[in-house]
């Protein structure tokens, strides 16, 4: 009966619903099945030795290192947790880990910590597997690859709305994944046709507001070390530092980068951003902190910025749930010039648009077919 005392090889437990005992998630995963006390209808009542019970283990997700997370019902976060279980390599995470309490003779769970040191600006293979290079043209072989984007699911790429078409080149047509360098051999380029373009409904070019869009590719990607989605920022917590990545120009009057570039940036205050981006023809209300953010170099003598060709790419931080995932906090939108000392670039604030991305990636209709 539920609530009765029971016994296992570890000691004395209590008979509870299997969905209240978090240890059963680990035990079943390890093919160590819990002792059954009875059944409540079709629901097993098991002998549980957890110090505290949980609400419902059916909301638990176990990553490939055994860390446990709980779904919250927030689609973007829950999908990120789901992808965490599909990582094609081992990686420490911040999931719950089980420990034995020798005084209480029961199991307790604590968040495990991770430490991964990453330094420098040279991007190496597998470091940003969500990066997409976007192409314009009639065929992939002759396409011009002029914007960036971020893979956020098996079929969707996040980018800037101003990247979805060009007055001279027409609509965006292709997305390339899995590459590190523009000069990589063709077999490393995983090129997909873009089947649907979904700009934010409030984007009204040439205005710079709501500069965000989704691209649906023609078939699902296969996750690997080279191709893996990033998470979307759902918390909106301030991030004093972040990194931007892209294959844009290496500086003013310089060519497009061959190797994927990373630049580490610092957050500017709302007042600094408003000063840098006052009202003008393309920003009639000036910088808007609730839907935009700006990042740049940390001193007035340091030129550190994204550049032409980086548009649509991510501004990102390391995910709070895993050292091997990135969380996109911004989408590269525009700036005052490329790499001006003490200046900043403007990024669309992703957390503001997560409800919209959730709806659109559910397959609802308000979309533009190519």
UniProtKB/TrEMBL annotation:
<dbReference type="InterPro" id="IPR033116">
    <property type="entry name" value="TRYPSIN_SER"/>
</dbReference>
<dbReference type="InterPro" id="IPR043504">
    <property type="entry name" value="Peptidase_S1_PA_chymotrypsin"/>
</dbReference>
<keyword id="KW-0732">Signal</keyword>
<dbReference type="Pfam" id="PF00089">
    <property type="entry name" value="Trypsin"/>
</dbReference>
<dbReference type="GO" id="GO:0004252">
    <property type="term" value="F:serine-type endopeptidase activity"/>
</dbReference>
<keyword id="KW-0720">Serine protease</keyword>
<keyword id="KW-0325">Glycoprotein</keyword>
<dbReference type="InterPro" id="IPR001254">
    <property type="entry name" value="Trypsin_dom"/>
</dbReference>
<dbReference type="InterPro" id="IPR018114">
    <property type="entry name" value="TRYPSIN_HIS"/>
</dbReference>
<protein>
    <recommendedName>
        <fullName>Peptidase S1 domain-containing protein</fullName>
    </recommendedName>
</protein>
<dbReference type="GO" id="GO:0006508">
    <property type="term" value="P:proteolysis"/>
</dbReference>
<keyword id="KW-1015">Disulfide bond</keyword>
<dbReference type="InterPro" id="IPR051333">
    <property type="entry name" value="CLIP_Serine_Protease"/>
</dbReference>
<dbReference type="InterPro" id="IPR001314">
    <property type="entry name" value="Peptidase_S1A"/>
</dbReference>
<comment type="similarity">
    <text>Belongs to the peptidase S1 family. CLIP subfamily.</text>
</comment>
<feature type="domain" description="Peptidase S1">
    <location>
        <begin position="117"/>
        <end position="362"/>
    </location>
</feature>
<keyword id="KW-0645">Protease</keyword>
<keyword id="KW-0378">Hydrolase</keyword>
<dbReference type="InterPro" id="IPR009003">
    <property type="entry name" value="Peptidase_S1_PA"/>
</dbReference>
